[in-house]
Write a structure and sequence with these properties.
11 helices; 37% helix; 9 strands; binds zinc ion; globular; 3-stranded parallel beta sheet; alpha/beta; single chain; TIM Barrel
């Protein structure tokens, strides 16, 4: 079975200045290769506030960390079809498109390095768009559109996790559909990072994709979650037309609390077992586990 996860902050953990060196990562090569199945893990270059002012920039540090992983035997892919059983297949992505420094040349450079997805913003306004934590108003800026157009030309997925509603709807313009790499259902947990029913329906109709986030505070308002709570969000999205448009977007190494049964990348098979237990048929389980994301990336 193909198992894809569209967001983890492992590269950030490797370069984060205040992370204790002995704290283990949620995503390791051992975890990804332990389970039977073909694993694909997106690894984001997360750009912290002022991260592009530092020298070397955090994007450069995370690129170096990615190169280090490759030397240790991780397998970089740019198409899901390149994923190999028994390998830690990793796809390079960006969280915070200020990494492009406002330049289409930099989009090209990142595309040439294998970046296949970019979240326009994290939680800081960056001249391209407005994050969801700031305001619902304020769509994609003219510079934002210049970057989005180039990303689309380079078949880079435009990721709307962290983006506000105005920017989200701007991106449903009939061009390549966007995706949300790590977001959940607002109706089940009222958090600004989650998507409303209308957003979900329109995203599914447009051919987009949502990776469901494992962060307990995005899953339940009391901040408590288990595997079944993650599945509640998946079932809800299926009812809104998401059967062919959803998957896993763990946010591993970016979250500081985990659902019971999903402590790290080695426990993702528990989610697959949970889907089966809930009565999802084999074909639907395979779609959610990885085939939907593969189809999305082929579509754009
Ligand atoms: Zn995030």
């Amino acid at each position: 079975m193909l198992i894809c996860d569209t967001h983890a902050d492992t590269l950030w953990n490797m370069v984060c200045p205040d992370r204790p060196a002995d704290l283990p990562c949620d995503v390791t090569r051992e975890f990804l290769t332990a389970c039977d199945g073909v694993r694909v893990q997106a690894l984001a270059m997360y750009i912290p506030p002022r991260g592009m002012e530092a020298s070397p920039t955090f994007a450069e540090r995370e690129l170096a960390a990615f190169e280090q992983l490759k030397r240790e035997g991780w397998h970089q892919i740019t198409e899901i079809s390149q994923a190999v059983r028994g390998e830690a297949n990793v796809m390079l992505t960006i969280e915070g498109c200020e990494a492009f420094k406002g330049s289409t040349d930099e989009v090209d450079r990142m595309a040439d390095l294998g970046v296949r997805m970019g979240a326009l913003t994290w939680n800081t306004p960056n001249g391209l768009c407005t994050p969801a934590c700031e305001s619902k108003e304020g769509g994609i800026t003219p510079l934002g559109w210049t970057i989005v157009r180039r990303m689309r030309e380079r078949r880079m997925a435009v990721d709307v996790s962290h983006l506000n509603e105005a920017g989200f709807y701007d991106l449903l313009d009939g061009g390549a559909p966007p995706m949300a790499s790590h977001s959940c259902v607002r109706s089940l947990c009222d958090h600004f990072r989650n998507l409303t029913d209308d957003q979900l329906k329109q995203l599914f109709r447009a051919g987009g994709f949502v990776g469901v986030n494992f962060c307990p505070s995005f899953l339940s308002e009391d901040g408590k979650a288990d595997v079944d709570r993650v599945i509640d969000h998946m079932a809800y999205m299926c009812d809104l037309g998401g059967e062919n448009h959803i998957g896993f977007g763990s946010d591993f190494d970016g979250i500081e609390d985990w659902p019971v049964g999903l402590r790290n990348a080695s426990e993702v098979p528990n989610l697959i077992e949970g889907l089966r237990r809930r009565g999802f048929g084999d074909a639907l389980v395979e779609k959610i586990a990885g085939l939907n994301f593969k189809a999305y990336m082929e579509r754009i």
